[in-house]
Write a structure and sequence with these properties.
alpha+beta; four-stranded antiparallel beta sheet; 19 strands; globular
């Protein structure tokens, strides 16, 4: 498995002309692809909720974009973009690749109803540098701007991250006005084959490990940080009209503090999770937060907006292998007989006699689905042969762990 890490490094180069020209080039590439996009009609089924928890369905016709991707089109596009381009030719290839990436990202959002049929506009100034434009010697990198005329040089040996990546392969770079983003990659072999199921909840990550049982990772501190700064920010917004300039500066300061403290917590959470389960494959649900918003109250939705599940998964993916499973029914299926069950006061009670915490059931069913087993029920003795007791009796977690903001491992609170 390949792991990639990205680090930021400041520079003192004068790259304003390169940034401006690349931004124009990238927008021109998007414009050309957009103008040659084929729009095809497709019948799409929609639904809306009616009384009794039921849905009413209807169909509409949507226009689906299909971008031109033939070699002939890309060749014509490249030749057109090369006209009057003052820098190395490989930047044109980089711009075409980035343009397709931007349009594919827009397409996904458009199909989900989050974007209108409007062409993307490049607003950020950056330059994506391909490896063919770089020469790497140890920690020194030379970037070609104009062949045999102009180069940019950097050395990351004195940066704080050097020891982490000194044996890693250097990938593509992104140049911005005042800094550069360095990408490093390394192929890592994971010897362990254990899979663990993780149920993402508002105040915890519930982990089911086939040997260690159920562990609960407490996230209440993360929500306390978010809610504390939200109260400060809401208070400042309520008096912003009285002193707009001063309050705007304060808002910027507290937004930055909130962002940095959450980022620090998530980084330490990812590190400590990877140390707690070093040889495990992490199984998560493929969650769609927007669907959860539909049925929640205003207070619940605000708490849900504080959840950072996707960022937790993203940071973990740099350290450990991650897999995703369908979330349907993981918290509402009895792991013993397969019946549909409804949680009451945090517990699930099934007609077969099985009683357990809802969050344990969610984590366990995610684990089972990660093994490739359907949640259709079965005998308890056959459901999980690796379970030490051969049956499901866990109702309370074996331990609750909290992120130690001053350490490198979880703080365990045993029951």
């Amino acid at each position: 498995m390949k792991i990639a890490l990205t680090y930021r490094m400041n520079h003192n180069w004068d790259v304003r002309e390169l940034l401006v020209e690349y931004q124009k080039l990238l927008q021109q590439a998007i414009d050309e692809i957009w103008e040659n996009t084929e729009w095809k009609e497709k019948l799409v089924k929609h639904r809306y909720r009616i009384e009794g928890g039921k849905y009413k369905y209807y169909t509409t016709t949507r226009l689906i974009p299909h971008f031109p991707k033939t070699n002939e089109f890309k060749r014509r596009l490249r030749n057109k973009l090369l006209q009057n381009w003052p820098f190395a030719k490989h930047y044109v290839d980089s711009a075409i690749k980035t343009a397709y990436s931007i349009l594919e990202s827009w397409r996904k959002s458009y199909l989900k109803g989050r974007r209108r049929r409007k062409k993307p506009v490049v607003k950020r100034s950056f330059v994506r540098v391909k490896t063919s434009l770089m020469k790497v010697e140890g920690s020194k990198i030379r970037i070609t701007v104009e062949p045999r005329e102009k180069y940019l040089e950097l050395d990351y040996s004195n940066e704080w991250f050097y020891e982490r990546v000194k044996d890693w392969k250097v990938g593509e770079l992104i140049i911005r006005e005042h800094d550069v983003l360095l990408t490093f990659s390394k192929d890592i072999e994971f010897t362990g084959r254990i899979k663990i199921g993780i149920d993402c909840n508002l105040m915890s990550l519930d982990v089911y490990h086939p040997e260690r049982g159920w562990l609960k990772v407490d996230l209440s501190e993360l929500h306390r940080i978010a809610e504390t700064y939200d109260r400060i920010i809401d208070g400042l917004k309520s008096i912003q009209r009285k002193a707009p300039k001063r309050i705007s500066r304060l808002l910027e300061k507290y937004y930055s503090r909130r962002r940095n403290r959450i980022k620090d917590f998530l980084n330490k959470l990812a590190v400590q999770l990877s140390r707690e389960f070093p040889d495990a494959v992490f199984i998560f649900e493929d969650l769609n937060k927007l669907k959860i918003f539909e049925n929640g109250s205003r207070k619940f939705n605000r708490k849900l907006s504080h959840s950072t599940w996707s960022r937790i998964m993203q940071k973990l993916s740099y350290r450990v292998p991650i897999e995703f499973v369908n979330p349907a029914g993981t918290s509402s299926t009895c792991p013993k007989c397969g019946r549909k069950i409804k949680p009451r006061n945090g517990l699930v009670v099934c007609e077969c006699g099985f009683v357990a915490d809802r969050q344990f059931v969610g984590a366990f069913n995610i684990f089972v689905r990660g093994l490739g087993v359907a949640l259709s029920g079965g005998k308890a003795d056959d459901l999980l042969p690796d379970e030490p007791r051969g049956e499901l009796r866990l109702v309370s977690p074996k331990s609750v762990v909290r992120v130690d903001l001053n350490g490198r491992a979880f703080a365990h609170i045993l029951f």
